[in-house]
Amino acid sequence: QVQLVESGGGLVQAGGSLRLSCTHSGRTFSSYAMGWFRQLPGKDDELVASITFRSGVTYYLDSVKGRVTISRDNAKNTVYLQMNSLKPEDTAVYYCGISGVFPARIIDYRGQGTQVTVSS
Description:
Layout: E1 3-7, E2 10-13, E3 18-25, E4 33-39, E5 46-52, E6 58-60, E7 68-73, E8 78-83, E9 92-99, E10 109-110, E11 114-119
Parallel strand pairs: 2-11
Antiparallel strand pairs: 1-3, 3-8, 4-5, 4-9, 5-6, 7-8, 9-10, 9-11
């Protein structure tokens, strides 16, 4: 059974940083990609960043470029999302998902999500 578990969310002041982690288990995903998404009330989910497991090629949403870094540690089955210079508009539930395509816009598996709240 495939499982994705996120951690690292929380409350931070504007300008602060958070690092989210997503650990997956249940099967090998060497030819897949991981995506970090955010869910905002009343809006469509956004793909914030994506990375391929094999080569580490990355994709970023324009509004987070320069502030967010996605990385992976395949030995730990974990993908990270380092978020710096956070803004109140970054407040959302962030979740990870695994996809057979890159960027990971259509996902086959997803985690429950972790809340990120940025106060002004």
